């Protein structure tokens, strides 16, 4: 059975799709967003990690860490092993209308592994959501789309050069794949992470609102930013590029909501996709 690389499985998640969900985080991402909340997801390979608060300076780093201060982020697992964990929570899915969400990283980077998991979930009658940046070849995207019950789709920046500056890739493929989902009437929920000083300018929000309205996607979730993930970067020996101490304050969120609403969109702050269907 196909194997893939994951770095975390979160049970009883409530913000990654409708109902109570199991969120499977796959490792590897083609984007390098300055504000990434899961920096340990960017590399497709296992990474050494260090938790300073657990370190007792015993000098045994090269052998076996007695406190768990040193560990490895990322493990190779089979689709069957992941399904065994997912199926433990089936009673909660049935009670709440939940299911499984595949996130990352960018889950479409491991599209063959993802496809296997989606097929197995479909056979088990489990609702399937894919949380994606949309950055994948159309051939891959259409194949996965046929097996997915809901896309959670990030829309970051509308300007191509700014998108490339802050994420490392341009946005042509991302916008094109979103157009495909909309034109195909496939279930999609657009989410905009509101990043102070990067994509919260009125011009970007107005362009995003006009684009979504043109596609007939009338609902959007605004996701607040915080930089509590700085310790995650330190844990894997990396440095966060976002300035410390900034976040999306209530005023910024309300102004973004006003701008997007003026474009004819219905806006949810925080974005719980279980509240309604597109």
Question: How would you sum up this structure in a few lines?
Answer:
This protein has 278 residues and is α/β, with parallel strands linked by helices. The protein has helices at 79-86, 90-96, 111-123, 138-145, 160-167, 172-183, 202-215, 230-235, 250-262; strands at residues 3-13, 21-26, 47-50, 70-73, 75-78, 99-103, 127-132, 150-154, 188-194, 219-224, 266-269.
How is this structure best described in words?
By secondary structure, the chain is of the alpha/beta class. It is built from nine helices and eleven strands. The protein has helices at 79-86, 90-96, 111-123, 138-145, 160-167, 172-183, 202-215, 230-235, 250-262, and strands at residues 3-13, 21-26, 47-50, 70-73, 75-78, 99-103, 127-132, 150-154, 188-194, 219-224, 266-269. The strands form two sheets. A nine-stranded mixed β-sheet has the order 5-1-2-6-7-8-9-10-11. A two-stranded antiparallel sheet has the order 3-4. Strand 6 (99-103), helix 3 and strand 7 (127-132) form a beta-alpha-beta unit. Helix 1 (79-86) crosses helix 3 and helix 7 packs across helix 9. It is globular and about 60 Å long. Residues 273-278 have low confidence and may be disordered.
């Amino acid at each position: 059975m196909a194997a893939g690389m994951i770095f975390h499985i979160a049970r009883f998640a409530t913000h990654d799709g409708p109902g109570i969900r199991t969120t499977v985080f796959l490792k590897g991402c083609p984007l390098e967003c300055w504000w990434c909340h899961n920096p340990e997801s960017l590399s497709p390979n296992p990474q050494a990690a260090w938790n300073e608060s657990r370190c007792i300076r015993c000098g045994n780093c090269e052998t076996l860490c007695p406190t768990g201060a040193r560990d490895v982020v990322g493990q190779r697992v089979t689709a069957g092993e992941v399904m065994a964990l997912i199926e433990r929570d089936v009673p909660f899915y049935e009670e709440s209308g939940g299911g499984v969400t595949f996130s990352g990283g960018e889950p479409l980077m491991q599209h063959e592994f993802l496809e296997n998991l989606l097929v197995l979930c479909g056979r088990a009658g489990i609702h399937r959501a894919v949380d994606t940046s949309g950055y994948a070849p159309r051939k891959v995207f259409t194949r996965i789309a046929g097996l997915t019950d809901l896309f959670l789709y990030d829309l970051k920046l509308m300007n191509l050069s700014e998108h490339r500056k802050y994420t490392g890739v341009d946005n042509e493929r991302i916008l094109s794949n979103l157009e495909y989902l909309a034109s195909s009437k496939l279930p999609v929920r657009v989410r905009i992470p509101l990043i102070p000083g990067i994509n919260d300018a009125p011009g970007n929000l107005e362009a995003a609102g006009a684009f979504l309205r043109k596609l007939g996607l009338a609902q959007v979730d605004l996701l607040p930013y915080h930089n509590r993930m700085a310790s995650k970067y330190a844990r894997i020996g990396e440095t966060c590029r976002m300035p410390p101490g900034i976040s999306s304050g209530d005023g910024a969120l309300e102004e973004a909501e006003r701008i997007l609403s003026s474009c004819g969109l219905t806006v949810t702050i925080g974005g719980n996709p279980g509240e309604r269907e597109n």
